[in-house]
Every structure is written in structure tokens, then in C-alpha cells.
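Posting for a labmate who doesn't have an account.
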Amino acid sequence: MRGNFTHLRRLLLASIACVLGAAVLTYLVDPLQLFRPSRLTAFYSDDTRVQNAGLIRSQSFDTAFMGTSLKLAMTGSNSRQQGFVLERAIERGARRVIWAMDDFIFVDAADIEADPFLSVDLYRQTTKGIASYLFSAAMAKESLFALLRSIPPLQQKLTQAAPFLPVKFALSDVDDIHALPRDFDVARDYNAKKTLASFAYITSPVRSRFLGEGYGYDAMLRHFERDAAGLITRHPDVTFDIYLPPYSVLQFVAMRDASPATLKIVTDLTARIAERLTQLPNVRLYDFRAIRDVTHDLDNYSDVIHHSPAVDAMVLNWLARGEYRVDPEAPLASLDALKAQIEAYRVER
């Protein structure tokens, strides 16, 4: 009996030593760069909800990009998540925010404190958040791999193999986070055929009900006021360049044909957004939705929403030049132009 107790105690002590050893390894390597810039060659993850916590702590910046397809972006994120992450970026020194404000980010969702997809404690660096990071088996694995990858004879081979291995931190360049591969064939993935196929898919009678899923004017307006307008008014010393993205016209035509109630919610909501944001002194609002040369050229898109890198460059140029800025004296002019285009557009299949 005494021997069994001794073995159990040794097993317990060995387990504790392993757990503490893994925590120390994670602290020293710090793959997320929460505590310090990486002492080894830094690597990054496409898991943006986790990686953003590290980017905010490790990168030097004065401008934050927010959206669902930008730096600090979170794929499929909502306004609560975006506002929360932006607040952390502002606390770390961001004095300008460039925010792609999709209408669908304001759909109803869990409160940030109860969000199962975002570790608020990790961003806040609470005791709970730090403990969850240090005592994470996944982070210990990442730390061990990073350590092995730093050994000169293994470095090149493991770096090349990283994208194909079950590790999250596989990107060697911070600018590769959610970026297209350098050899990406743009024409193959962005063309009218794919855009029209996407339109047919989302307007199919068996799927069209999803066009309006989660859309409700009162709830969306409430989330806008709390997550966007509230954030902006709390930080009057931060400049917010906010733009309504240049979806293809088919995004709105799909709503017109298959879910007109959803289209009304979108236009009513974005009318209120335009009126509200143009009255805030630290906001410059841009509306790119009615630029016919872009949004009616279906070769610019891979589906009805996502546009090509060429349009990305246009957006940056428009923002730099101040083009398509919404006039506070006529905040609904661009929306009215969009409405007219939606009404007149006919789909050529």
C-alpha cells in the first residue's frame, strides 16, 4: 500500500513538473509575443482572434485597420468583437483607425463578455487570460516547435514545412496574415463567372432565407450606437476613417430579388449610420458602394462581396485622396445613387 502511495506521489509530482515546465517554455518562447517581441525568429498565425492580441502588444503602430478582411480583422467578426479589439489597439497607441464597416457586423450576437470565440481575458491580460495562455497545451506545442525551428540545422526545413504541419504559427512575415499567396492567380478566382455563380447560389429559393438571417433594424442600430458610435465618442483624439465597402451591385440585387425586407433594413440602417457619423468631428465617412465602374464590373469579385486586390489598392488610393467622402450636408446622396442603381439593374446570366 505504501509503495502504491509512493508511486502515485511520484506520478503527481512528475505531472506537476511537466505542466510547470510547459508553462515556463511558453513564457520564455512566447509564440504570441504577449510579453515581449520574439527572441527567436517571429512567426504568426491566421487565427486572427488569437493573433490580434499578440499583434497589439508586439507591433509598433499608430494606425489600426479594422474589418473582416484587413489587418486586425477577424473573419466573420461582429461589431462587438471589432469594437473591443479596436479599443485595445487605441489603448496601445493607435491614433488613427481605418474601419471597413460592413452592415452585417451589426447583427445580434453574444455580449463580448460571453463570446465563446474571443478570449477577452487574453486581450486584457488578466490573471485568467495569462493562465489560459501559459497552461495551454496547444501553446506549449507551438513553443516547442518554435524552439526547434530556431536551431540552425532545422530552421530552413521546418520553416518550409510549417504551413503543412498541425501548428498555428506558420507564417514567417506579419504581412502574410490573411494575405493572398504571392503566386495567386487573380483572374482565376476573381471573375464574372464566379460572381454570377455566387449570386445564383444565394438567391436560390432553398437558400435565400439566409440573406436576412440575423438582420433586425432595431437591434442592429442599437449595436451600431454601442459598438461604433460609442467607441468613437469615447476617443475624440483618435481619427476614424470609416468606409462602406464596394460590394458588387449583385449583393444588393440579391436582396432586392430574394429578400426585399433585408434590403430595406440595410438601406435604412446605413442611412442612419451616415447621418450619425457625419456629425462626429473625428470621423471621415466614405461610401464606395455606388462607384459603378467598380461595383458593376463583376470581374472584380470572387463572389458578390469579396473584391480583388486591384480594388483593395483603389480603396487605399481613394482614402488617401479623400475621394467619395460623404458630405455632412448631404449624407444620403451616395445612398440615393446606390438605390437608383439597385432598382435599375438587370442581371445578365
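Reply:
Got it, the C-alpha cells are right above this. The longest helix spans residues 2-29.
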